[in-house]
Amino acid sequence: MGDTVNSQGTSGRGHAVVIGAGIVGLCCGTYLQRDGWQVTWIDPRGPGEGCSYGNAGQRSDSTFLPLATPGILKRVPGMLMDPMGPLTIRWAYLLNLAPWLLRFVASATPEKVEAFMRDFGAMIAHARKCYEPIVADAGLADLIRPRGALEVFETKAAFDNIQTSVKMRQRHGVPLNVVGPEEIRQIEPALSGNFAGGIHRTDMDTVINPLKHSQRIAELAAKRGGRFVRGEARRIEAKGGGKSTVHTDGAPLDADLVVVAAGALSKKFAAQAGARVPLDTERGYHAMLPNPGVELRIPVKSAEGGFYMTPMELGLRIAGTDELASVHAPPDYRRVDPMIKRAKRLVPGLNTEGAVPWMGMRPSLPDSKPVVGPAPNTPGVMLAFGHDHYGLTLGAVTGKAIADLVAGRKTDFDVTPFRANRF
Ligand SMILES: Cc1cc2nc3c(=O)[nH]c(=O)nc-3n(C[C@H](O)[C@H](O)[C@H](O)COP(=O)(O)OP(=O)(O)OC[C@H]3O[C@@H](n4cnc5c(N)ncnc54)[C@H](O)[C@@H]3O)c2cc1C
């Protein structure tokens, strides 16, 4: 903790270039602006139009389990055999993915899972608190609904399987209630089915329009003098003394500080700044139902389907699943069909007409933790990517940590476990 990356000392003023205007890059730049930095974002898309566009909108302050838990190896053959399953690996990309998969499987020991829950828990504990100034200044309050969330299990096997993780999460202070079929129906009367059980979380909230949420942060940033350049960053050239030039498909950008926040496409920039990170992607899908015809009171997660049904401003979003297929694979929109089918079964009367499919690339490291901190060998470059399933939740806490590190302030949580050189 307490690293300084900028040659100009703790006042931290100068020109910062943020590569990527997803929720993570937006929050990093916004926090830097509060410290007096002049910030330019570069992104070929509009703010929040990458992975941050299509998430399930869920936020909390409590720790989660990593994706790789003991027993994951036994699931790999199933992941390969069922291309439409909730967690799948595309054969064609198996060779590309092998190094990531090996590390992923190696992360699945009880000790590493325990350490993940502790370290990740220390970070996520500050997630919503760090959003507070952004929510106030950008006027985001009307986009956030404190509704809780409900996870339902249709089979006894799946429900029995989760019991160990329930105990682990409770031990780490996660506020969850195990509920039976009758309570499920009381919490969400729109559901139907013979549920084996469920998990009710009252602490979670929902961002009901993730795109608008990002866009309003960008509007705030622009009011504070921020500049948004539509273009692609190509290369970071370190100039010494903490200064760099970001070469782009347009004019080069000189910077006193560069923040790499290009989501799933951050790997090459990290490498240019001396950090070899096994970043890849867990691709997720959604189907947006513009006229669902049924109103859910609470976001509902299907445990077996691996997706959320989140009531949002523009309809019901069925979002989730996990496809390991690298950043180069084209989307396979057939993957939304099993989600829609199961959603119709869980919510009778659901109107799925006009469903709009979408695919997004979660930026993922095999140990399920993001990289947050200085590039190991290049002063003046900060890394902020790899937020996997929790980037919406962790945007602001990441942004504040980056600004704190740049200014030489103590960070809210220990960033050591999130450094790039852990690999
Ligand atoms: C189906 C699904 C459901 C999810 N549900 C949740 C949820 O409920 N809660 C939660 O917290 N998280 C959730 N997530 C995860 C969350 O959406 C991501 O972790 C988050 O959006 C990552 O943000 P980011 O800013 O790192 O990446 P992105 O939003 O992808 O932003 C990165 C930006 O970098 C830009 N970029 C890439 N290359 C370059 C380049 N060369 N030059 C310039 N710019 C570049 C891209 O265009 C993009 O705009 C979900 C994800 C998916 C797919």
What does this structure look like?
With 423 residues, this protein is α/β, with parallel strands linked by helices. It has two domains: 15-52 and 211-278 and 368-422, FAD/NAD(P)-binding domain; 63-113 and 143-208 and 280-364, D-Amino Acid Oxidase, Chain A, domain 2, CATH 3.30.9.10. 31% of the residues lie in helices and 25% in strands. It has helices at 23-34, 72-81, 94-106, 110-124, 127-138, 156-161, 163-171, 181-187, 210-223, 267-272, 336-346, 391-407, and strands spanning 15-19, 38-43, 58-59, 87-89, 144-145, 149-153, 177-179, 197-201, 205-207, 227-230, 233-240, 243-248, 253-255, 257-260, 280-289, 300-302, 307-312, 315-324, 356-364, 371-374, 381-385. Strands 4, 6, 7, 8, 15, 16, 17, 18 and 19 form a nine-stranded mixed β-sheet that branches. A hairpin with a 2-residue loop joins β11 and β12 (243-248). α1 (23-34) packs parallel to α9, α1 (23-34) runs parallel beside α12 (391-407) and α5 (127-138) crosses α9. The structure holds flavin-adenine dinucleotide. Residues 19-25, 42-45, 49-52, 54-59, 232-233, 261-263, 265, 284-286, 319-320, 360, 362-363, 385, 387-393 line the site of flavin-adenine dinucleotide (FAD).
